[in-house]
Specification:
It is built from twelve helices and twelve strands. The chain is of the alpha/beta class. The chain has a single domain, classed as Rossmann fold (3-Layer(aba) Sandwich), CATH 3.40.50.720. The strands form three sheets. The chain has a seven-stranded parallel sheet, with helices on both faces. The protein has a three-stranded mixed sheet with strand order 10-8-12. Helix 7 links the parallel strand 5 and strand 6. Helix 3 crosses helix 9, helix 6 packs parallel to helix 7 and helix 10 crosses helix 12. The longest helix has 21 residues. About 4% of the residues have low confidence.
């Protein structure tokens, strides 16, 4: 059941739903084969009102109309009313329902489901480390509860969204980490609750795929940049974009040498959809960009895009807090996506500059 919608908010999320129409049309067009395979489907999306969920829901609504799929989407979150206050146009779409609840105890939708896209999780970063027990519980118990429901109700396809955090520290000599890498977080550290929780969730996906026939492919997601990305949390590129929009120096807290990569959410949705409908049960697919760059280079890319957006303003300075240590190993968090390319024919479409510029434009209201 969709909750009442409180008064609309102001800010970038409250703009007309057509502001990103071109982005969503691209998702709908490029993934036509996979959208059409969901004709008549009833899909449960957990974690449906976060950054990932926002893009998935908006794309689903347009694909459902464009291809006359007759599909329905149950969008589960803890507080759907807050989401619908930001996106009131979604509250009236007849193909959407917005149940609320804790992922560890949700009831099965009354009309049943044919597919599940399980993206609900405790977040990574400072929130996860401040309450590691809760973080681990939400990830593992929530995943187990969802898979039990799938087994009990005969659901054959359940996409599990996890994270590149399952690999632990990426060796500096490995420029792009493949799914076959067998590293992992420090399992004795509370700070590893997020990564270890995701590893346990993946084990459950393998068990339910092979023992119970619930085909559960895994999307190991890395880092992303695009409209709706929060600018005030632990994502470095989001913080850089915030600094540029505020016209102040871009602040790098470390020494600028760690390597990261960022995928646009348009590509993200296309990839998740393909893994949901075509991925092999119990098999993991990295989801991210292979274009790894140093944090310093990322800051420079944001500054260049900011100058392109506002050529009348001087380029922002970049302030680096630390100094690189000669000979120190490079901290990397960059995937190899060869498996997604070769098995599912998934290319990375949107280059980094366009992804950054679209995020700047969105948050600037341009």
């Amino acid at each position: 059941m969709t909750p009442p919608v409180p008064p609309a908010m102001t800010g970038p999320d409250s703009r007309d739903e057509n502001s990103l129409a071109g982005e969503f049309e691209r998702i709908v067009a490029l993934a036509e084969r996979d959208w059409r395979s969901l004709a008549g489907a009833r899909i449960l999306l957990t974690g449906g009102t976060g950054f990932f969920g926002t893009w998935i829901v908006e794309a689903f609504v347009r694909a459902n109309r464009a291809y006359r799929l007759g599909a329905r989407l149950h969008v589960l979150s803890r507080n759907p009313a807050v989401f619908l206050r930001k996106f009131p146009h979604l509250a009236t779409d007849p193909a959407l329902e917005f149940p609320s609840g804790d992922i560890r105890a949700i009831p099965w939708p009354s009309g049943g489901c044919t597919h599940v896209l399980h993206a609900a999780t405790a977040t990574s970063g400072p929130v996860a480390t401040s309450d590691p027990e809760e973080t681990y519980s939400v990830i593992t118990e929530g995943t187990h509860h969802v898979l039990r429901l799938c087994r009990e109700h005969g659901v054959k396809r359940c996409l599990l969204v996890t994270s590149g955090a399952v690999y632990g520290r990426q060796p500096s000599e490995v420029t792009n980490v493949p799914e076959s890498f067998r590293g992992g977080p420090d399992q004795t550290s509370p700070a590893a609750a997020y990564g270890e929780g995701k590893r346990a969730a993946e084990l459950l996906a393998g068990i339910y795929s092979h023992q119970y026939g619930v085909e559960t492919p895994i999307a190991r997601c890395f880092a992303f940049v695009g409209p709706h990305l929060p600018l005030d949390v632990h994502f470095a590129v989001g913080n850089f974009i915030r600094d540029v929009l505020d016209g102040r120096p871009v602040s790098i807290k470390g020494d600028g040498t760690p390597h990261r990569s960022y995928l646009h959410p348009s590509d993200l949705v296309i990839w998740l959809l393909a893994i949901l409908v075509r991925g092999q049960g119990g098999r993991a697919y990295n989801v991210g960009s292979e274009d790894g760059r140093s944090i310093r280079e990322m800051a420079e890319a944001v500054v260049r895009a900011g100058t392109e957006l506002r050529p009348d303003r001087p380029a922002c300075d970049i302030v680096v807090a630390g100094s690189p240590q000669q000979g120190a190993p490079i901290d990397r968090y960059v995937p190899s996506c060869e498996r997604a390319r070769s098995e599912l024919e998934l290319p990375e479409i949107i280059p980094l500059h366009e992804a950054i510029l679209s995020t700047l434009r969105f948050h600037a209201g341009a």
